[in-house]
């Protein structure tokens, strides 16, 4: 039976025009066919081969990368011709190809990294590309290395990084979590989005004490409320061009929402870039209080929802920059003297494994001299170490600002 030939030609056609049940995503259709046909996902040997249209797009994308002399992404750095030829015919059990991994970086040549994992298996199937990217970004985390067990450490050793409130405007610590049994955004069906939202919102509504709050689905939320939450840095908006190009915004806003406690110091983003983003934030520099609240929230949610964790890579996420601890501890901080020379600020921050971003996060500019500065390393160290690295680095930056 020539079912496979017919399937491979049609799999990338617009799904809305096809009569698949429950608006199945392309990855899910591939998973259905995988049950019928044998597959060796690691070697890429499969009756469900990569179709010619995808291969053509891959070849064009690879050429575009090679021709882009100004492109400095890790994708371009590590996707050599040899690696490209080795991986271009591979496919995961859910149907993800190399095109799904690299298309955002191909479309956005100003990407810093340029790769995403459409499902958990992609980290294995496309390891020849992901491993060097991970090693480069995460400070030498080698393919033979294993991420340490979860350890939130002794919270009493953390402190307020700016007790005089002269420099730090606010402090925020977040982590990402993926639910077991579900792929990442590009492979989720509309039905799965709804199912996940139901499970997650139910768990969040059961939180008590300081964490007690309200869940707001994006579906049906009026524009005024939505924009106010975005301006307050409480809510996410539909994915930027990097996420859009990675197919992370399908069926928007179905399944997406925000939970926040009554004080708006504890938030959970549902189905933004990752299944869950668990966030603790408040004005000022009290890192101890902020991190303690996040840890409490993670532990409470984990009692009700099973998280996806890999023995080698730690907690799994859509973007490889967030693997491992998934912890991003950041401050909004004013450093006018150091910031007078942005290149120098970046250089100093890098010495302390810190990353400097604009006021509203990645790919934005500073507003009013306020920068978002966070830990860069998330892998190969514990949660406590990641947060402590940020604490120590910010204290050093403040000392340098005072001495400038």
UniProtKB/TrEMBL annotation:
Keyword Iron: no
A cellular component annotation (GO) from this entry: extracellular space
Keywords: ATP-binding, Kinase, Nucleotide-binding, Transferase
Gene Ontology molecular function, alphabetical: arginine kinase activity; ATP binding; creatine kinase activity
Signal peptide as annotated in the record: none
InterPro entries: ATP-guanido_PTrfase, ATP-guanido_PTrfase_AS, ATP-guanido_PTrfase_cat, ATP-guanido_PTrfase_N, ATP-guanido_PTrfase_N_sf, Gln_synth/guanido_kin_cat_dom
Amino-acid positions noted as binding ATP in the UniProt annotation, renumbered to this chain: 170-174, 233, 277, 328-332, 357-362
Record flagged with keyword ATP-binding: yes
Residue ranges constituting the Phosphagen kinase C-terminal domain according to the UniProt record: 167-404
Pfam family, one: ATP-gua_PtransN
Domain annotation Phosphagen kinase N-terminal: ranges: 57-139
GO biological process, one term: phosphocreatine biosynthetic process
Documented EC number(s): 2.7.3.3
Family classification: Belongs to the ATP:guanido phosphotransferase family.
Name recorded for this polypeptide: Arginine kinase
